[in-house]
Design goal:
two-stranded antiparallel ribbon, Alkaline Phosphatase, subunit A, alpha/beta, 12 helices, 31% helix, 448 residues, 10 strands
Length: 448
């Protein structure tokens, strides 16, 4: 048999192309390469309940009703600028097992540009945050977002320069694209998100012939199993684990498709998407993102958990008994504070699931996928009721190949722009720029 090559692994029967993780047995025929850096963002809409999320705010007053576009909180926690021990508040508890792999960053602000609804700038400007009124042709301070600027440098040799994932399957809302996208090629030019898991799977692994077969992995299993005999024991285990992961993704897609088919037969007050289990959907889309990062299909990805200010409901399994609207609850925190904190924790559980998954994936030098990634959790509001743009909830998992410090809580000085973090991350990714958006510099204390 000819020497084992990555090309022979990538091509299976029927012309399908299947990306694979790093395998030592395959790498023997080529110079060993160090793992590449990756960058990913996990966006949560409508802010958080501060009492459950931020240290020292457990006894803060609960906001009363919809307090309009206040932009800045009246409550100022007594916390000094600099590093602090990492305290896992009730909302952050799901991160316990990866506590040493995360950095909790507080005190970051954004500037609201008057002229649009407060929610319109939350998601759309999260990764751009241009200086107010510097973009003359737009009511939004929206420019080319960070993911694309980074991908311009590190994504040129990947099949997908960037990948955008969204967990909003609803089609019945009246809000514009600015409420439902965080990734932008430039002002007014959205990078469309993949919202259907099966379409995402086919985009990553499919060919024109794919509809003629039961699933994609069947196209390559015969060839792959014969090649598997050429692998060492450790690679055989990794190979089997990878295919089992893909099979699990396919089975989960089938499960949700069957459920949707049954729901479509029943007349319901809410759209079918409202009744699909939310956690299953988020994790399935997240699994697809992780596979894409693991196999080098892309090095830059964005992941939007849900849209801003959409009143259409979702079923958050294990949290509520019926579909609920995150946005509507956020405007009455007095009544729904406990429920909203449960929802915040639910979202954190999904983020923790992906962080743990990435930390289990071994790369060529023994490090993990997470070790080589900057994976940022964040929201465009510091609180969903007050609509404040200051002191945003930000967590960074991973170090981007040892570039950032972890396992601490860092509180920024008053007035530090969120874009300072993006400038810092760009620097950690090897991107040289004088300034990004409305940044005033970098947060050098975070750099290792």
């Amino acid at each position: 048999m000819s020497p084992l090559s990555r090309r022979s692994f990538l091509r299976g029967t029927g012309g399908a192309i299947l990306a694979l993780p790093w395998l030592e047995s395959v790498a023997r025929v080529a110079p060993k390469k160090m793992p590449t850096q990756r960058m990913a963002f996990f966006y949560v809409p409508i802010g958080v309940v501060r009492r459950g999320f931020f240290p020292g705010e457990a006894n803060a007053e609960i906001p009363v009703g919809n307090q309009g576009n206040r932009m800045k909180s009246d409550y100022v926690p007594s916390i000094k600028t600099g590093f602090h021990d990492l305290e896992l508040t009730p909302t952050l508890q799901p991160l316990e097992t990866v506590k040493d792999k995360i950095t909790f960053i507080t005190g970051l602000d954004r500037t609201f540009q008057n002229g649009t609804d407060v929610h319109a700038q939350c998601a759309s400007c999260f990764l751009s945050s241009a200086a107010p009124f510097s973009i003359e042709q737009s009511a939004w301070p929206l420019d080319r977002s960070l993911d694309h600027i980074v991908a311009d440098q590190i994504g040129t040799d990947t099949p997908f320069r960037t990948l955008e994932f969204s967990c909003n399957s609803h089609r019945d809302n009246l809000e514009s694209i600015y409420f439902d996208n965080i990734s932008w090629y430039g002002t007014g030019h959205v990078a469309p998100s993949i919202r259907d898991p099966r379409k995402a799977y086919q985009r990553l692994f499919g060919t024109q012939e794919i509809q003629d077969f039961r699933n994609i992995t069947d196209l390559v299993l015969d060839d792959a199993h014969s090649l598997n005999r050429e692998l060492g024991y450790a690679d055989q285990q990794k190979f089997a684990e990878y295919f089992e992961s893909l099979r699990a993704i396919e089975e989960q897609m089938d499960k949700l498709d069957r459920m949707k088919g049954e729901l479509d037969k029943v007349h319901m007050a809410e759209p079918t998407a409202a009744y699909l289990p939310r956690g299953d959907y988020i994790r399935l889309m997240g699994d697809l993102m992780v596979v894409a990062l693991q196999t080098g299909l892309t090095r830059v990805a964005t992941f939007m958990v849900g849209p801003e200010r959409w009143n259409t409901p979702f079923t958050f399994e294990g949290v509520f008994d019926e579909p609920r609207s995150h946005h509507q609850m956020s405007h009455n925190q007095q009544e729904y504070s406990d429920d909203l904190m449960k929802l915040d924790r639910f979202h954190m559980e999904q983020f923790a699931y992906l962080v743990e998954k990435m930390d289990r994936i071994e790369e060529s030098d023994g490090s993990s996928l997470l070790d080589n990634t900057l994976f940022t959790y964040g929201s465009g509001l510091g609180d969903g009721s007050t609509h404040q743009y200051n002191d945003l909830p930000i967590i960074v998992a991973g170090t981007g190949r040892g570039k950032l410090k972890t396992s601490r809580h860092y509180h920024c000085s008053e007035g530090t722009p969120l874009a300072n973090l993006w400038s810092t991350q760009a620097q950690a990714m090897g991107i040289k720029m004088d300034r990004f958006a409305d940044s005033s510099g970098t947060i050098s204390q975070l750099l290792a």
